[in-house]
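pasting for the record
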Amino acid sequence: MVNNCSNSGCGKPLHYLREGRIFIFDAAVGSKEAGTKRLRRLEHYWLCGGCSETMMMVQDGQGMIRVMVRPPIVKEAEEIAPIVASMLAS
């Protein structure tokens, strides 16, 4: 269960989901052996409103989940998305 902001430098307690951003990752559990299926589970992470403005959560090739600074292109795309959606709706 998510209780606090995933940014280790913040740790703000989670009270309401209306602020911030939830990240969900598909995480493999255990080792993969020949002829067997790897168990999977969803892991949930939360960044508070302040942290989610400048940071995001990512999963690398080894399955490690970490907080990183959001690149400028991601910020610009999120600012433009509502404008494009309203233009398509009209």
